[in-house]
Amino acid sequence: MGETLEVFLAFLRFGVLSFGGGMANLPEMARVIIGNGWVTRQEFADGFALGQFVPGPNMLAVLFYGLGAAGLPGALAAMLGMFLPGAVGAMLLVRGWEWMAKAQWSRALRKALVPISMGLSASMVLVLIQLSVDSLFWGGVLVLAGLLIYRGASVVLVIAGGALLGLLIALGS
Amino acid sequence: MKVPLGKLFSAFVHIGLVAFGGGGSAQLYQAIVLKRRWMEEREFLETTALCRILPGPVFANTAAHIGMRLGGVAGGALALLGVLTPGAILMLLLSFAYVRFGAVPGSLAESALNGVAAAAIGLILATMLRQAPIALDSLKAVGLALVVFVTYGLLHWQLLLVLLLSVPVGMGLYWQEAAIMPAGEPTSSPSGQGMEAVGRG
Fold first, then answer.
1. pLDDT digit string (tens) for B47-105?
2. Do both B112 and B169 map to the same domain?
3. In this complex, do A100 and B50 lie within 8 Å of one another by their Cβ atoms?
4. Among candidates A53, A114, A159 on the partner chain, residue whose Cβ is nearest the Cβ of B94
């Protein structure tokens, strides 16, 4: 029980701090939960990859991290902690709607969050590369995948292609 | 408008089931605005824009917000639960399979996951490339993004510290612009739609 609560509080903190999209706090999350020994570096990267296969927010990868930390209760605690802060805020927003939509501070905040999100995303890419790209080959695949998607290729196809390539390499070696 | 809770829940479960790939906001829009006409288009755009300033995935936040509008507090909770449940069940099944079969370095599953991770990071990169011209349209925007990247990505400062520094400074930089509000302009920023993919998860 104490362990589950600890997981919930840790993810509640990530949930409160994840401004600029759910994944923006990925570097912080990696630092804390790898540091706590809840998952290894490899497992963190693998959990992120698994999150790509499920529908809905790919932050559902937190279920994987919570499972590593404290079993099934830990998984559910991680999900609740991650998603509740934003959702509760969004529901409260129904009340203060008119005022929020027009307030100057909320307009300034929205404008400021655009470049801040870019900085957070760049940090996230850097950490993910450090965690899961361990060879020049996969670095090349990453760039190629990015270019293909940028040119309009289907996201689902490119990700499936990455999986297939990984399988072929394992079979060939 | 008000919607019966059963109908509301099944609609959001359906959205949660099909929200693969590029973030769920597009699926929300399809289901709520186009198909069921539970909301006006403009209202929907304002909702996603405002839910962006909250922490957490824009998609889940927007779902909870719309759910509450359509069915009160219970509606909001059911909408959040609805969009999360299909993915959460699948994620748990995959996690159990991973623990059971895939944890061995050098295994087939491990190698496939390496490929998936590389492609998924490529996706984030592509999204950033596409957004950069709009998001980094001024010197102060570039500066702000750089400060965040250097402090958070390179120097590994705590996220809270980075946000406490960059958000007030950023709001200060954009304060003047935020005052200008031409008549008839929707409250969503022009780059609003482009920010979907990074904000999806």
1. 877 787 788 888 899 999 999 999 999 999 999 999 999 999 999 999 998 888 766 66
2. yes
3. yes
4. A53
Choose one of B73, B103, B133: the last residue of a domain: B103
Are the CB atoms for B26 and B63 separated by under 8 Å? no
Question: How many Å lie between the alpha carbon of B37 and the closest alpha carbon of chain A?
Answer: 19
Query: ipTM of the predicted structure?
Result: 0.84
- The reply to whether residue A125 touches residue B121, judged by beta carbons under 8 angstroms, is yes
Question: Are B145 and B83 within one domain?
Answer: no
Instruction: Determine the 3-state secondary structure of B55 from DSSP.
Output: coil
Q: Please report where in the chains the tokens 């590389």 appear, as a residue.
A: B118
Question: Within this chain, do residues B76 and B144 fall inside the same structural domain, yes or no?
Answer: no
Whether residue B65 sits in one domain with residue B130 = no
Range of the domain at B144: 105-201
B70 touches chain A (CB under 8 A): no
Q: Do B121 and A159 touch (CB under 8 A)?
A: no
Q: Which residues does chain A have within 8 Å of residue B63's beta carbon, measured at their own beta carbons?
A: 87
Which residue bears the tokens 């059911």? B78
Q: What is the distance between the alpha carbons of residues B101 and A139, in angstroms, rounded to a whole number?
A: 26
* A-interface mutation test, from B48, B89, B125, most A Cβ less than 10 A away: B125
Looking at the whole model, is its pTM more than 0.90?
Answer: no
**Nearest CB partner across the interface for A79, out of B51, B88, B145:** B88
Task: Pick out chain A residues at pLDDT < 70.
Answer: 20-22
Q: Are residues B159 and B181 in the same domain?
A: yes
As given in the structure block, the two tokens for residue A114 are 């655009």
Please answer yes or no on whether A52 and B127 come within 8 Å at the CB atom. Answer: no
Report how far apart, in Å, the C-alpha atoms of B71 and of each of A18, A54, B85 are: 27, 27, 19
B100: DSSP letter = I
Same structural domain, B197 and B132: yes
Do the Cβ atoms of A132 and B121 come within 8 Å?
Answer: yes
DSSP state of B157: -
Number of domains composing chain B: 2
**For residue A166, how far is the Cα from the chain centroid?**
22
